[in-house]
Amino acid sequence: MTETAKNSEHKPCNLLVTGGAGFIGSNFVHYWLKTWPDTRLIVLDALTYAGNRNNLTEVEDNKSLRFVQGDILDETLVEGLLRDEAIDTIVHFAAESHVDRSIHGPDAFLQTNIIGTHSLLKAAKRVWLDDQIKDNHRFHHVSTDEVYGTLKPNDPAFTETTPYAPNSPYAASKASSDFLVRAYHETYGLNVTTSNCSNNYGSYQFPEKLIPLVIANILDGKPLPIYGDGQQIRDWLYVDDHNRGIDLVIRHGRNNETYNIGGNNEWANIDIVKLICELLDKQFQSASDMAIRFPNAPQVTGKSAKDLITFVKDRAGHDRRYAIDASKITGELGYSPKESFETGIRKTLQWYLENETWWRAIMDGSYQHWLKTNYNK
Ligand code: NAD
Ligand code: TYD
User: Best of 76, 92, 97 to mutate for ligand 1, by most ligand atoms within 8 A of CB?
Assistant: First the structure.
């Protein structure tokens, strides 16, 4: 770690974690309570379609955790929490996060991701700067590599100085929120950090995103929709590795700096889907209960999951390639991912196999409703 990094230590004691019942947020809560048991953690989550109280079942008896159902747009609620709980650190995950939904209905993205982030910033400024100066404070904003736009095959990976060029309403709303966070530092002196991360995968990911959708659809014998030619490239990072990066940035990151977090792990979509097919084909061969548990899976009739691959109409404005240059967080804060894609994807598959009730409740309920409403499927 460099001297500069050491000199910007922040000691989180009481955290407000927004969006802590979503995919990455709930994994963060698990990670944090295990890693820093002497701190207190308040989750604020509106429990939208993507938020799930069950994501926190494992830690619900933990005395360090308080769950509050509420909206980041509710400034009175947020200010009350910041004061009553003596919050010194906000970790801001709450967002509308699915690109396809942002194409069909951008308004919610602008409302939550831009206005919602601004509401939080206003509340933080009032409590930490206007009421009574609280030097030990930090607003950490969780953002995405999608703000940088798309890369050509041989372009260098995104660095923190790559100009913003968001292409989807989701990415544009996240880019706007990144700028607001920066502005609250430059204008008012709020202590802020931002991390821009690549595609995450792991437990508790809502099965509308590529990896969990493919797992669930294979097990139910449903088509695996591949947008366009399937050659779009993403950098994939195991969710705990993202959260370890956020932890480092919160505690050691320099004020008003942004840090890219990535896995150095670029994959074309079609190759990821084929890999999951192969791993599940093997699972059916080696575990005899698989055929009983998942009678509609293609493997039960001697086929491969690959037979379910179906090329469909491309996503509008589909970014071709994302790649992250994570040398800043590595050099300054000593970050490196712990999980290889090989180990991470196996853990993820295992989790979805062991938590069928979790994803089936979603596939049978809200997600199907959204598909019917938006795609008439
Ligand atoms: P998610 O959609 O799984 O979870 C979002 C959570 O925010 C849900 O629990 C939801 O109920 C909550 N929420 C939404 N609107 C809210 C509001 N107005 N008030 C309070 N809570 C609200 O999202 P995710 O995939 O866990 O992403 C978390 C954050 O990480 C987002 O900011 C996203 O932009 C960013 N990110 C995600 C990825 C990824 O691959 N998923 C990659 C990089 C960055
Ligand atoms: P997704 O998981 O939605 O994440 P993001 O759009 O934030 O990258 O999608 C990952 C990639 O997979 C993206 O290039 C779109 C593609 N994709 C499909 O081809 N089919 C699908 O059904 C989904 C959900 C995504």
Answer: 97
